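User: I'll paste a sequence; please echo it back and then give the predicted structure.

Assistant: Echoing your sequence first, then the prediction.
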Amino acid sequence: MSRSVPISLIFAIACQTVALIWFVATLRNDVDANKMELVRLETRTSKVEEVVQMQAVTLGRMDENIKSIRVILEGMARQK
């Protein structure tokens, strides 16, 4: 090794390399965790969409039932 390259420079480069490897490993771990969370959220979103669809159908049925009851009650009111 040449004396023109200080040992502290080599140490600094080694420390930066270790820090970079640590950062990339942490970043990869975060990406994997986010990927798993996205899959979980997609599943929950699908279930919520199914429930909302069922509620919309139920609400439509209730609306039709209320209309029928209103027609019956108006008919009864006219007969009196």
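The radius of gyration is 34 Å. The chain has a mean pLDDT of 93.
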